[in-house]
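Collaborator request, handled under Task 6.
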Amino acid sequence: MKSITININNDKLADKVIRLLKSFKDEGLEIVSKEDMNDLKLLRATRNEESIPFDEYLENGD
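Structure tokens returned to the collaborator:
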């Protein structure tokens, strides 16, 4: 799999490029926003962290 990053500062042009790229989805193209990818990486990093009950969190919130 190859990945590319395209930076576009113009919203109208970005919409046009995304519409063009969506036409290739049936051929296996996957479009993932950089923001979504960063969120997924941060979420994955918390997977092994210990969780606490919400009530306990509220009691010790300060």
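The cover message to the collaborator said: "Helices lie at 11-22, 34-45, 54-59. The chain has a mean pLDDT of 84. Please let us know whether this matches your experimental observations."
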